[in-house]
């Protein structure tokens, strides 16, 4: 049996009720007697195993489709050379250490 949530328009209290699908929804707040409205809440079950969209199609992509939709920004020139850090020249004028 599903658990339904109701919120009172008068006091704002949220009430949970275990009901059959065929039962009529609650209309009176058990705390103050105000009118209740049914809330839409997220369910707690997940479809696991093969044969579901999440396991078969919703996962990460591989191959050419993944490279086309990659989140990494591409360089303006389109080459990898533009993304590599440039090496700096060594400008130290001190002589190299002597080896004994």
Describe this structure in words.
This protein has a domain at 3-39. The protein is mostly beta strands. The chain has two helices and three strands; from the N terminus they run E-E-E-H-H. 9% of the residues lie in helices and 15% in strands. The longest helix has 5 residues, at 64-68.
Short description:
Helix content is 9%, strand content 15%. With 100 residues, the protein is mainly β.
Task: Give the topology, please.
Blueprint lengths: L2 E6 L5 E5 L17 E4 L13 H4 L7 H5 L32
Antiparallel strand pairs: 1-2, 1-3
List the main descriptive attributes of the protein structure presented here.
100 residues, mainly beta, three-stranded antiparallel sheet, 2 helices, 3 strands
Structural class: mainly beta
Q: Number of DSSP strands?
A: 3
Number of helices: 2
What is the global morphology?
elongated
Please state roughly what percent of the residues sit in beta strands, choosing from under 5%, 5-15%, 15-25%, 25-35%, 35-45% or over 45%.
15-25%
Q: Describe the strand arrangement of the main beta sheet, using strand numbers.
A: 2-1-3
Query: Main sheet, how many strands, which sense, barrel?
Result: 3 strands, antiparallel
Over the alpha carbons, how many angstroms does the gyration radius reach?
Answer: 32 Å
Indicate the mean pLDDT.
Answer: 74
Order of helices and strands: EEEHH
* Low-pLDDT windows of residues: none
State the distance separating the first and last CA atoms: 86 Å
Q: Classify the helix fraction into a percent range.
A: under 10%
């Amino acid at each position: 049996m599903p658990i339904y949530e109701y919120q009172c328009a008068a006091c704002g209290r949220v009430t949970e009720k275990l009901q059959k699908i065929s039962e009529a929804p609650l209309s009176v707040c058990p705390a103050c007697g105000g009118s209740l409205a049914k809330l839409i809440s997220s369910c707690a079950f997940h479809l696991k195993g093969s044969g579901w969209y999440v396991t078969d199609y919703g996962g990460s992509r591989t191959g050419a489709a993944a490279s086309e939709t990659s989140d990494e920004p591409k360089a303006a020139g389109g080459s990898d050379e533009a993304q590599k850090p440039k090496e700096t020249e060594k400008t130290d004028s001190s002589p190299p250490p002597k080896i004994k």
